[in-house]
Amino acid sequence: MESLHSDNTSILLQGVCKEYNHKHVLENLNMDVPKGCIYGLLGPSGCGKTTLLNCIMGTTMINNGKIKINIKKPSDVGLMPQEVALTTVFTIKETFQFHGKLLGMTNNEIEKTGDELIELLQLPQFNTRIGSMSGGQQRRVSFAVAFLHDPNILLLDEPTVGLDPLLSHSIWEYLIQQVARSHKTIIITTHYIEEARQANKVGLMRKGTILIEGSPAEIMQIYNSDNLEDAFLLLCNQEEKKNKIKRILPPTSTATVQSPLSKNRSFSFNRLIAQTYKNFLFMTKEIQLLLFILIIPVISCFVRNIAWGGDPTGLILSIVNHDTLNCSTEPLRGCNYEQSMSCRYLQHLYNSSNFIQADKKNLEEAKKSVLNNNAWGLIYFGPNFSSSLIDRIFSEITDIKNESLETGSIQVQMDSTNKIISDLIKYKLSEEFNNFLKNLYLDCGWQDALARAPIKIEEYIYGSKHPTFTKSQTASYLMGIFFYIPVVVTLGQIMPEKENGVMQRSRAAGMKTMEFIIPVAILQTILSIIQISTAFLIEFIIFKNPLVSSIWLPGSMLLLQAFNGLCFGLFITSISDSVSFTMTLSTAVVFFITSINGTLWPMEGVHPFISKVIWWTPLALPSEALQGITARGWNIFHPKIYLGYAALVGWAAVYLSLTYLFNYNKRLKA
Description:
With 670 residues, the protein is an alpha/beta fold. The chain has helices spanning 49-57, 92-102, 107-120, 135-147, 165-182, 216-222, 228-243, 269-285, 287-307, 341-350, 363-371, 385-394, 402-407, 419-443, 469-472, 474-500, 502-508, 513-542, 552-575, 579-595, 608-611, 620-632, 639-669; strands at residues 9-20, 23-34, 38-42, 64-69, 77-80, 153-157, 185-190, 201-206, 209-214, 315-321, 355-359, 377-381, 410-414. It is built from 23 helices and 13 strands.
């Protein structure tokens, strides 16, 4: 494949074949477009006209054949796609500025040419938003964008669809003038066959091949017809008769061939700046979206800290106390063996503020309250509980009676359907009983150490004396949200552009993959820095979650995690062009990996079957590393920390590699 250097031919296609899903879209197609003419490519919808233009532009590869184009540089070709392919939140001026910068135009050139096109195409004022225009006006803006950089060759895909006859006529007059004045070459596709009589040359296309080429007059003369449409029908009937004899098509090569337009395109800072300009402009147009993106971490972190990890309070326990008839509301202190030990213990229990006492007459009534979900458990003190407990304290081990052991015990029955609440009840019952005994021993002048288990908890190496679930899950939670938010933002940026054709138009203008990714990464980085800063303010300053290191190491890890989310978002967009599918898939994947990264439950508590695999998931090692930094003060040289960084870099590389492979494969099949 090579550029064409003939003075008389602009575009030459020889034996072009394109196969998609084992179906021939273009079949041994030959096409000769002279320089300085309007070439009308005619044919019904679905015959391959748009595919042919994409092959010429280089956005779709062919399997066989040659494409030669008489150009000096890729920007000598302009494209108007079949879709409007414009960003609807932009004004006409902003649209011209983006596409002009994309093609290396200066601001003065953009403004001058834009004024001429607005007057010619009867467009609204420069500051009119694209989304507020009618469909016909939007198509006229799309037409203007194709002409903006004054290309020598123009490919116009159905430019007059949806326009009124007068405007269509004026557009054709403009095209004819451009060819006469500037010697431009224009390929215009249409299924309005009679409209193409104004072209210098037409090609009649059907089922992926061009049946005949020539001037409209020549074709009508060949088929002895007064109009092109009748000539086209006669030609199609002849082809149908030929096709009754089964044609044997030459085998299509599995190799791919590029258009000259897709070759030798180097990295361009003009295109990079244009795409960066577009991304930031889009965000300034969508203020509500921008504020929502920035406030998500604030809301989620705030809600997490007030809703997660606090000890449940107001838990109702049904009390059956057959040890005494009535407990005094006065504090029970002193070394008085005649006091009700059950009442003294209950005072300790309810001073903890976790429980509400509901007195019941008997076990049956108390149990019924639990069965009816009116209480979380019941506590039963039998007759003579106090005296039996004192006997247990004073009796020698060999002298204690079984009866004292039985009646000196507190019987507890619980609703254990909620693990956290049932574990809390058991813990508090035990803790407050120890406190009750300790106070009794102190009041009696005994060594309170005898009332405690022979286990002494020394100063904590890491953490505090009273850890909470909220504090322990801070790192894994931050890792989760700073993975998910960039995924959603990336999908929100890319998928609409893929769906409305803006990305395809940018690719046709020469946009390379890195020129697209870098501006997205720049915007994401700025947004992520703001989000991380606000999250740190909420988590570590307002709610005082543990942060025993400087902010730079955890900040850099979260920023790298945000880039990881961006890369995953790019990978998801390469899988499908459906907005609903990509959003659903990304949410499902993120939900799965955040479910096993320690946010909801410690990773050490997973099933043994996946305990070895879990550490290879995208969030596991980074979450462990961030916990080590914020709560333990580990530095970058600790194995857990550099393994966390390595995991983030490794997964980003995996996502980017898969993105490249999927996009390359889709381009081959497109």
